[in-house]
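Box 3.1 A note on notation
Throughout this textbook, protein chains are presented in two layers. The first layer is the amino acid sequence; the second is a token string describing backbone geometry. Keep the layers aligned when reading.
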Amino acid sequence: MNRNNFFGHAALAVALVMLAAFVGQMSRTQWSHDNKHETVERRIVFVPDGPHEVDEPEDEAEDDGEVLVRFREGTTERAVRAITERLNDRLLDRFDYVDGAAYIAAVADEDGLDAERVAAEYRLLPEVEYAEPNVEINLDPPGELFGGEAEIAAAAAEEAELASAYARDEARRGDDGDDGPPVIMAKGPRPNDPMFNEQWSLLNTGQNGGTAGADIRATLAWAKTTGSRKVVVAVLDTGVDYKHPDLAGNMWQRPASLAPYADEHLGTIDDRFGFDSADGDGDPFDDNGHGTHCSGIVGAVGGNNEGIVGVNWQVEIMPLKFMDSGGRGSIKAAIEAIDYVIGRKRAGVNVRVISASWGGTFSSRALEDAIRRAGDEGIIFIAAAGNSRTNNDRLQHYPSGYQLPNVLAVAALQRRDALASFSNYGPKTVHLAAPGAEILSTWPGNQYEEHSGTSMATPEVAGVAALVLASHPDMTVAQLRERLLSSVDQLPALAGKVSSGGRLNAARAVRAE
């Protein structure tokens, strides 16, 4: 950065430190490479696939010296370019749809400095509101559903309490039919999809050791609506296998009347099937699997005598790929994908929901700004609470932890209505829970797999949000968020764990009961 005023001895010392750091980085890179392949090979069923954790910025910048900078209102592009040139930096991108005269940019250092040091120097400038490293987002290796005897005993105690609570509630309800016993809850249309009976989150009859009725009341909701192809849900993830026979009929495609997406830095992109911000193109095909799994939960085609059914039998799923085949992305790529959604919303696409099954502990103000912008456009942001078994009130988790009016944070339940042992929680920062353990869904290559995680609970909520919008298309984000939270089933296992104290209830959310 043209910073040549160091004394000779200081320069020598810095050079030695950088050499040592380079050797250390080589070691860290090899470890990351080895474990990346281990993660891919261990994408197995019946266990949590883990959160997409964000670690400390000094180890996880996408490229050395790559930072995100918000310049203060009134700072012109000419001034921004003059600043970056003076510091010998390269202006990578300018984020769109920033209100007012503010300017948010991605900047790359050209002198080999680490991202945190570059960000710190930008923060000293009077023209800068904030600067932060462009942090990587990575898939974690899968974890165990139950860690040991103590956890199993705790889960058994929770289930015993739940059984007693159900018995007390049933006796208190009598015969009024309000959220009654399983025979009442099982009413409603049944799809002909052959694997539907394995989808306990939609209809729990006690299969595979579950608790009858411990589901989201999907069949009752379907008596009122099975969704609408006028509602678009954006899945912000590893992309989607949009050729999968159980997804193809519900995939969003750019209408012929809509011009291809244009970006100042990327140029014109043929976004027929969506957007890939990881590669900067219009092909968001999933080469990892995670995004395809989440998409099937939202909207695998219902009633097509194929595989499974989604929460929505019909909907439009917009694929947003910001992570690569190894499950690695960045804050910058996530923001670019969110800005793409905002652009398409402004162009007339009725995208109302973003489903985000990833997160970590690094708080990005630039990402928060992007999610806020989406909320201003009428888009709700459903986010996974994380799979680290921690209290998010104490160790915060993002993006689920952003205190924004369009964010909903989701914990995961297992098939007996207890909080899944891997799930994060937080009576202030996590809002509701949904089924997220042993969830069967679509997988690339015309396959189906079971996976567990708050990653799976999140699209359950996103799917119900789309169901509500199918019947109430003019509902605001505030109204939709309140509807989802006020319609939950209160569960003893969630008291003091999530702010609503309850499990997602699709039937009550769409006013089918």
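The two ends are 64 Å apart (CA to CA). The CA atoms of residues 106 and 384 lie 26 Å apart.
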